Amino acid sequence: EKSIASLYTQWYSEILLRRVSAGSICFSMNQKAFVSLSAEGAIPFNAEEYSDINELRALAELIGPYGMKLLSET
């Protein structure tokens, strides 16, 4: 059975980081978060909901150092 750290790490790497690599998400210095670049006809995805500083702090607390290490290695 997968740990919560591995499940969150898998989601962030498969969903969020893949979209960053594809250019549909970029980092906003003003918002201090990753933001979605909307493409016409695409399914809406608000990266801001998952990547602002408060969400990333909560993620780090939830998955701990092991999970953060997994995330940085993907």
From TrEMBL:
InterPro entries documented for this protein: Nck-associated_protein-1 (IPR019137)
GO BP of this protein: cell migration; cell projection assembly; cortical actin cytoskeleton organization; neuron projection morphogenesis
Pfam family for this entry, one: Nckap1
Transmembrane portions of the chain: none
GO cellular component: SCAR complex
PANTHER family in the record: MEMBRANE-ASSOCIATED PROTEIN HEM, NCK-ASSOCIATED PROTEIN 1
Family as reported in the entry's similarity comment: Belongs to the HEM-1/HEM-2 family.
Name of this chain's protein: Hem
Organism for this UniProt entry: Neptis manasa
